[in-house]
Specification:
2 copies of one chain form a homodimer. The first copy, chain A, has 74 residues and is an all-alpha fold. Chain A contains 6 helices and no strands. Chains A and B meet through helix 2 and helix 6 of A and helix 2 and helix 6 of B.
Chain lengths: 74, 74
Amino acid sequence: ADYCLKEGLDFKQLLPLIQETASGLYKISPRDAQTGPAIRHDSETIHKHLELLKAHPQLKNLYILITESIQQLK
Amino acid sequence: ADYCLKEGLDFKQLLPLIQETASGLYKISPRDAQTGPAIRHDSETIHKHLELLKAHPQLKNLYILITESIQQLK
């Protein structure tokens, strides 16, 4: 939410995504529900994201750690 | 979910907590919704958690990074 504030985004717009992700886990496992660049090994998008996080070193570290952990899933 | 499997826990038992956390964000901001040992600066509990994560170095690193990020909130 702090990130959104700093970047002029409205955190509320993310709520449906968060809500649906949580609800989805009743139907499929986190592993099967996983989407996004990490599980696709989409390095181009990952590099774009890291570039966008340049001014947010802590979020960038989290992003790297979570990306690594997702990529070990398969 | 992998952690639960390895530790003999049922991930499904966490679903209501995940669901309620997501729904709660419609009413209060993530900052105001934050609970747990990090925001309380409860080092005793944090050390117990880190001890329990000894066999899971990647989760332990995530735990440390997220704890640091929560503790900077206030």
